[in-house]
Protein 1
Amino acid sequence: MINILVTGSDGQLGQCLQKIAHKYPKMTFFFMDRIGLDITDKNNIQAVFKKHKFHFCINCAAYTNVEQAEKTPEIAFAVNAVGIRNLAIVCKENNVKLIHISTDYVFDGEKKDGYLPSDKPNPINEYGKSKLKGEQYIQEILKEFIIIRTSWLYSEFGHNFYKTILKKAKRKETISITDSQIGCPTDANNLALHIINIMESQEFESGIQHVTDGEAMSWYEFAEKIVKEHKLDSEVKVVKDKNYRTFAKRPVNSVLI
Ligand SMILES: NC(=O)c1ccc[n+]([C@@H]2O[C@H](COP(=O)([O-])OP(=O)(O)OC[C@H]3O[C@@H](n4cnc5c(N)ncnc54)[C@H](OP(=O)(O)O)[C@@H]3O)[C@@H](O)[C@H]2O)c1
């Protein structure tokens, strides 16, 4: 039997893992939400690891509010950097393999082509900086880890672009979307399957992986695709860059390959 701890289990990816866990009888999942296990509290992590012998820890816990992270970066760093350091230390103490999820936002978006795992990160917003720091702690502390960088996650769970567009389209609202950023939308259910496959395979190769659904597009093109897929007839309009403002800077090209 393989024992697996899933942190941040009430988030989007955590819920995708919960949905399929029953299909893997040789795996026992311990799903812990923020109340059960707060990764900013090392004693809390140690107590949970003392109670059970885990083989893997899948870290889905993260501070993911990109806009708010600009205003209160200390909170983003407390979770995405210090929290990850805590988790890595306790994984090391207990010989647990860590599978951690990171982001396309560790890159500045200046590259013409897609980003490889070996490309040098250079985050341009506080969320990206905090996630990069978390990656660095893992690499410093652990020998057995996989960092999966993914992008533009969507699913039936939580708040995400896909659900927002679908809701607007069903109400026949005109949808105005920027076409100035390109990335790879990724179904979080596919990412959950990828993580399970890693644990099922006999090989565990430490390092950084880029995992997406593989098709690069702009937010505008993604919105159009969602509307078409559901045979809805909302109009999707492009918002030109000067009219599109967010507090946090976002990479223009965050395609991961
Ligand atoms: N969503 C995307 O488009 C995207 C893109 C690229 C990479 N990623 C990465 O993919 C991973 C999963 O993303 P997601 O969409 O599933 O995120 P999510 O829905 O925001 O889930 C994150 C979960 O972590 C929990 N959490 C926050 N602080 C915590 C703490 N101190 N201790 C324990 N749990 C805590 C949150 O709980 P509360 O809700 O109670 O705060 C939430 O349930 C994250 O690492 C994210 O950085 C996401």
Protein 2
Amino acid sequence: MPITPPGESVVDRFLRYVRIDTQSREGESTTPSTETQWTLARMLAEELRALGAEDVRVSEYCMVYATIPSNVPNDDAGTVPVIGLLAHVDTSPALSGANVKPVIHRDYRGGDIVLPGDPSQVLTVEQNPLLATMIGDDIITTDGTTLLGSDDKAGVAAIMTLVDLLARNPAIPHGTIKVGFTADEEIGVGIEKFDVEAFGAQFAYTVDGGELGEISDETWSARLATITFAGKSTHPGTAKGVMVNAIHGLANFLTRLPNDMLPETTEGRVGFVHPYAGVMDVEESSVKVLLRDFDLSGLEAKEALLRRLAAETERSCPGVRVRVDMKEQYRNMNDVLRHHPELTENALEAARRAGVQPFTRPVRGGTDGSKLTFRGLPCPNIFTGGHNFHGKLEFNSRRGLEKTTETLLHLVQIFVERAGARMRATTTAGAT
Ligand SMILES: [Zn+2]
């Protein structure tokens, strides 16, 4: 079936969106954290309306919601699952998102790419071996002075292009699709303001991943330990037999952490403990430690280990009292998603049909999807073709954007096919 192309290509959309500053900011008490995010959110709402989407609205928290109604006959009874597609409008606080000047390196011939605005910024094949697979592609970088914002405007552009394609190709069958664009993902708080119930999807996908083909249905399970060492301060001139220096307690504890259980010594499926911030004073010292593991049992073991090391420190530092406070941060979404294996399977199949070699890779971090999954909206993550997020060397490519869009186009059709197969199976079973 020949497909009518979108009114605007995914690359042109992407280039338009990345020029809009949507950087989020840590430590603000409002959502969105920056006024600038409204600009893109309102623009997307307008564009969705123009493309015929229904129930389009921007919430008081800068979240965009829209519905693409099903075009499957007699789908009122919800034969085809209602799926959601999500991307975030904001870019990382790590680097300026203003004055992004995307540069297209057409028909890439291999070799390192020097960014024109700052020649010290070089995209090397050595550090980016995937470049070797991108010969002939059009590589999209910045001029070297800002981030690109492919994270996650690639996801936004792919979803918008899908909406465009579906509007122009009514013969492509799809169930009800809910579109959601969120604010403040990069500072980890926006998703709390996302209304899962109003969104109305049964399942969703965040389109916020990296390498082409990468589907993620697994994240860390995460806890935060705050370990406090209480001592006794006194004038050091008359401290003999009186002072208890909490700083020595803290130091003693840190040397006990196993070397092979740190972020700098682990990868793949191996979890870690990570002391990352602390306060040192004689009277009281404290350290914050991240605990990360894919398995709940592994996380429990790490918590038990920290408590045991804290007790050992207390024994070997007379007078120092040690307290361990543990806080749950988020959980591995696979604990839920493994009960919905079809979500990952459908995404893998969609990528395959788009001509991409798919694979699953656990995220050594959390995603918006991990929070949504535990709020009742099972939500794996799909690639966007982007690389080197949150830095000046961030890049994507024409093929990356096009294949992401194509994957989404196949994904919505696969849900229709499989719902049809289910229906036929029940009809046959009922007939016998
Ligand atoms: Zn992102």
